[in-house]
Each structure stands twice: as structure tokens, then as C-alpha cells.
Backbone:
């Protein structure tokens, strides 16, 4: 079991739906991350939150909207997604976003867009 | 621009043998961090080992060791005494202060299959 919990594990949604992915950690980490991973490819960074403030947005389309309600929670709100957005979405956390801090990942949410 | 190369797309290794996974990189930055992650078919990314570019000694964590050759820009992962549970995709990743220490950039990965 990982210390970063992601829900749901699987999600199927239509292109007009609105849904949210959730991520929770209780390690006292102050940096949290969202990654997108397509099959047989490495993860690609989407967003970084540091001390609950958005510090990196890797030019992600606005149909993905991150939110960090507190230091333990990270959400990714989804709206009007496209079929190419089907992927594994990984959440990670680290002590902070400084040098040498390993990121600890959750099991991911497998998202399918119909 | 930084580039991370894992030249071995896949490899088979026999149980109890050692295996070396290659990772080379191209950067002009003197300061960087090197990470190795394991991703089983279940999807979770598991942190294995870290090496800082200024660290004098090669990192070791249990059966994992990192063969860091800074001049050659190489950071190979060595797994000793392979186990069936080591079957997974292995990613080399790096971060740089100029872009943000928190921004991990991954290589393409190497798929390892451990056979009995």
C-alpha cells in the first residue's frame, strides 16, 4: 500500500461530463504533483503545488483544473475532456520541492474518455 | 535543453543474477539530481535511489546501487540478486535547479522481466 492515496482507481467518462480526481497524503509533505502517463510512455508533469500554491503549470489545457484545498489534499477537476486525454493520472508528493527530495507516488487513476 | 536516454527498451534477466540498466544524459548544468523509479504493471511509481551531481560517493539502497560516472554523464542502476518481483518498468529521471528541483524529467524506461 502506498502512502499517497488516489481515488477513484478507474474512471470512465463522456466528453461532456465533469468529474474530479482526488489525491491525499498524510506524510506532512508540502509539495504535491499531478502527472499524466500514456501507455508505454514515461510520466509527464502537469502541475506542481508547493505550500498549497500552484508553482508549475506545464501549459496544460484549461479543461484540467487543479486545486489544493489544504496541505494533504490535491484535486484535479476534469471538464469537456477529449479521447486523447485517456491515460493514467498519477499524483505524487514530496517533503518539499527542493533538491534531492524523492517524490512518492500513488497508484494512479486510469481514466478513459468515451 | 536536457535529454535523458535509456537505450535498453527491454531485457530479460535470470533470477538471482545481477542486472545493469543504462541511463545517460546530456546537460550543461553542473547541478542536478538523478533518480531511479520502478513501475510494476499495477501502475504505482516506486522510488528506488537518488544521486546528487556533487555527491562524491555512489548511492546504494539495499540491492540497488547507482554507478555514477559524472564525466561520462552516465548513471546506471545495478540490481543485485534479481528477484521475480523485480519485473517492472524502470525509469531514470532527473531534476535541475534552473527549471525547478521539483520538476522531474523521465527517460523512456527499460522493461525488465526476471525469469525463474
Residues:
Amino acid at each position: 500500500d502506498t502512502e499517497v492515496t488516489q481515488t477513484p482507481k478507474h474512471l470512465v467518462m463522456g466528453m461532456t461530463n465533469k468529474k474530479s480526481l482526488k489525491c491525499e497524503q498524510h506524510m506532512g509533505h508540502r509539495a504535491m504533483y499531478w502527472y499524466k502517463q500514456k501507455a508505454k510512455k514515461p510520466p509527464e508533469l502537469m502541475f506542481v503545488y508547493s505550500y498549497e500554491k500552484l508553482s508549475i503549470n506545464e501549459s496544460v489545457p484549461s479543461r484540467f483544473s487543479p486545486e489544493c484545498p489544504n496541505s494533504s489534499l490535491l484535486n484535479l477537476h476534469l471538464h469537456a475532456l477529449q479521447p486523447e486525454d485517456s491515460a493514467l493520472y498519477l499524483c505524487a508528493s514530496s517533503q518539499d520541492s527542493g533538491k534531492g527530495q524523492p517524490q512518492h507516488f500513488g497508484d494512479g487513476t486510469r481514466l478513459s474518455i468515451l | 535543453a536536457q535529454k535523458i536516454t535509456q537505450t535498453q527498451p527491454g531485457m530479460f534477466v535470470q533470477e538471482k543474477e545481477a542486472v545493469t540498466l543504462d541511463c545517460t544524459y546530456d546537460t550543461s548544468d553542473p547541478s542536478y539530481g538523478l533518480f531511479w523509479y520502478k513501475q510494476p504493471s499495477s501502475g504505482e511509481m516506486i522510488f528506488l535511489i537518488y544521486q546528487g551531481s556533487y555527491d562524491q560517493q555512489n548511492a546504494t539502497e539495499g540491492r540497488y546501487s547507482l554507478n555514477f560516472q559524472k564525466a561520462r554523464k552516465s548513471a546506471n542502476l545495478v540490481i543485485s540478486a534479481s528477484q521475480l518481483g523485480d519485473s517492472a518498468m524502470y525509469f531514470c529521471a532527473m531534476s535541475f535547479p534552473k527549471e525547478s528541483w521539483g520538476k522531474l524529467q523521465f527517460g523512456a524506461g527499460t522493461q525488465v522481466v526476471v525469469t525463474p
About this structure: Chain B has a mean pLDDT of 94.
